[in-house]
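Q:
My hope is that you can spare some time for a protein that puzzles me. I hope you can help me see how the letters and the tokens relate. Thank you; the sequence and its tokens follow:
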Amino acid sequence: TAPNPILTTLRYFREEYEEHLRGRCPAGQCTALIAYHITESCIGCTLCAQACPVDAIPMRPFERHTIDTALCTRCDACRQVCPEDSVRIVDARKPAHAAGRLAQ
């Protein structure tokens, strides 16, 4: 099936295609389907705000941080530097408060 790469990928990755058609990304990598959320365990260390290349996280020391989803490019820098594992990848189509409860 090399002449038709679409049929080949459908053959081997059908489940993943179907999940994307339902609006879900099993790998959590499709930026249109994911959002970043900071949970209650945030200690306000500001490492995430410092790491954010687009300033989507206001720097407020010792307060729980928030992410401006309109500015966020989903680069994952904030999640990688968080010492408390407070930055979670959530379903972008769910309200932030519900996503926070699910992600904890």
